Amino acid sequence: MIISLNENTALIFNQASHAAELFALVDSNRSHLSRFLPWVPHMLSVKDMERYLLNCEKLNREGLDTSFNILQQRRIVGRIGLSYINKANKTANIGYWLAQKAQGAGLISKAVKALLGFGFEELDLNRIEIKAATTNLRSKAIPEKLGFHFEGILREAEWVNNEPLDLMLYSMLGSEWTKGQEKTS
User: Fold this and answer.
1) Residue 114 and residue 2 in contact, taking contact as beta carbons nearer than 8 Å
2) For tag attachment on the chain, is the N or C end more exposed, with fewer CB atoms within 10 Å?
3) Where does the N-acetyltransferase domain lie (predicted)?
């Protein structure tokens, strides 16, 4: 599956065949990504990435995860996905990361909007959350810019680099998404 964001950018469905390119991207952005992502120090080889991507494919088949690589000019520059999909409660969480050189062009905002549409319209979700470390200014700017509701701070909710991080919790409901789409139509 491919979701086009514009003529040069798209979300392409996760595939294990992307392991080498994705690992090279993580490896070249290791210090940038490891500030806020707990899995980076454990991603040590193409094989590690391949195992991760195969697990993502499995979770997708089970309806628990839908993840995409972000392509710009046909090159992977990051990832985004709906994870922790709970069908009974119609909820999911959006997670994302972007290579340092690809930041500042609005790619994540466009990708999150596309994923919101997919989640609410295709997967029939009712609530989508984004969690961002209180110190991750770029990450928390995304839900704030897109009209998510700030619900509070999850104290010491994630361990990164042997230290606890507080996370800001944002949410959007399907009804809020629909109202926002009606305003832009």
Assistant:
1) no
2) C
3) 23-170
Q: Taking a C-beta distance cutoff of 8 angstroms, is the pair 168, 130 a contact? A: no
Q: Judge whether 168 and 150 are in contact, CB under 8 Å.
A: yes
Cβ atoms of 173 and 126 within 8 Å: the answer is yes
Q: In this predicted structure, what is the pLDDT of residue 182?
A: 66
Q: Considering only the top CATH level, what class is 2-184?
A: alpha beta
Q: How far apart are CA 123 and CA 41, in angstroms?
A: 32
Strand partners, 159: 164
Mean pLDDT of 11-38: 92
Q: Under a CB-based contact definition with an 8 Å cutoff, are residues 110 and 6 in contact?
A: yes
For 86-109, b where at least 16 C-beta lie within 10 A, e where not — what string? eeeebbbbbbbbbbeebeeeebbe
Indicate the pTM of the whole model: 0.91
Q: For residue 185, is pLDDT > 60?
A: no
18-32, 35-49, 86-100, 169-183: lowest mean pLDDT where? 169-183
Is 138 in contact with 104 (CB distance < 8 Å)?
no
Burial class (CB in 10 A: 0-12, 13-18, 19+), 182: exposed
